[in-house]
Amino acid sequence: MDRHNRLGEEKISSLLFQFSMPAIVGMLVNALYNIVDRIYIGNIKDIGKLAITGVGMTLPITTIIMAFGMLVGIGTSATISIRLGQHKKEEAEKILGNAFVLLVIISITLSILGIIFQDKILSSFGASPNTLVYAKEYMTVIFYGTIFSMVSFGLNHSIRADGNPKMAMMTMLIGAILNTILDPIFIFVFNMGVKGAAIATVISQVATTIWILRYFTGPDSMLKLKKENFKLNKKLILSIFTIGVSPFSMQIAASVVQIIMNKSLTSYGNDYAVGAMTIIMSISMIFLMPIFGINQGSQPIIGFNYGAKKYHRVKETVKYAIVAATVFVIIGFLVIEIFPAQAIGLFNRDAEILEVGVNGIRIYLSMLPVIGFQIISSNYFQSIGKAKVSMFLSMLRQVILLIPLLLILPKIYGLNGIWLAGPISDFTSALITAILFFNDIKKINK
């Protein structure tokens, strides 16, 4: 049975498992890069609680770097897929060559600006004199390695477009495993602290960059990275940016939220509140990444069957995806509510971090059980071609509702107001999503 027949005829539960599992593994592996760093940094003797807060202050910057990686990476991947579908292999290779050059130029620009202005940037993002030293120590190394971060992240999307999702997953596995091995060596054995964590991350990114470049210049790839395609073409750049601007905007918005949150946490709490939130977000990533993997797996199944007017299969796919996502988040919710101190303690066992973190995680992630439904339903609209509705719903939870709540609630409830902003945003966005989702399902039924 060929791929098209499979999407339209094979058992939905089996299809969803086959398509989602590699994506879930990939998303979790990708998350491990940051999580492993934070676990080791938070456990550095004597300075762990301030060090993890310093790294928390760098999140908006690393998010911006990732945004540019998505702008080029996702835009390139989608454009290459379209050209290959049109049997325009040479043009697809030109797009790949242009993407590589764009990633190099943008990363070098970001590195130079970051190194020159990092003190001002970090201070304006909320870093205090106590945490600035650790934030700067971490980011200086990351800025020097930005070129490897962006090239590896950006071009890995193109490996999928080249028809090799397993190789794309292997790329992330190599980076995450290497980072996990090198972190304790540089942090504890070489006694390099926060700088050691950053060096381990950059070395891992160098390794994945070499792996990807070897793939696109070796015999395994269909598309080849060629020097003659490095000359930038305005039309090709525009086609990349047109598609990549949506995920880029989402990441920039996420960075703005992180900046507002860090400044609010510093104003209404202290440095340790930022450290606690860094840990809370890391823990939430563990349970949310599988949902994004289910999204990636369900998207082609929903899209194909919607196009084929097999609406019963569309509904069945969405149902299974929502159930699977909800199971993940309910497990996460139970772990957090029953073992909050143990979850926070994995990253740092300091009494001040634990006190703030245990209270914070129980409140901030109290609506975790509804997030699975909200994310899957938002993806449903994207899968059936209603990108504007999907983008609105995605922005609703993390930007449109969250930013005003972060600005208003702390003025009334202090630090608890920041923790409350999360569940209120989650519940309200899930409610609005449910209304739009079930209205659309009614249209399908008709």
UniProtKB/TrEMBL annotation:
One of its GO terms (cellular component) is plasma membrane. The chain crosses the membrane at residues 12-35, 47-74, 95-118, 138-155, 167-190, 196-216, 236-260, 272-292, 320-341, 361-381, 393-412, 418-438. It is a multi-pass membrane protein. GO terms for biological process: response to antibiotic. Keywords: Antibiotic resistance, Cell membrane, Membrane, Transmembrane, Transmembrane helix, Transport. GO terms for molecular function: antiporter activity; xenobiotic transmembrane transporter activity. It is found in: Cell membrane. PANTHER family: MULTIDRUG EXPORT PROTEIN MEPA (PTHR43823:SF3), SPORULATION PROTEIN YKVU (PTHR43823). Belongs to the multi antimicrobial extrusion (MATE) (TC 2.A.66.1) family. MepA subfamily. This is Multidrug export protein MepA. It comes from Clostridium amylolyticum.
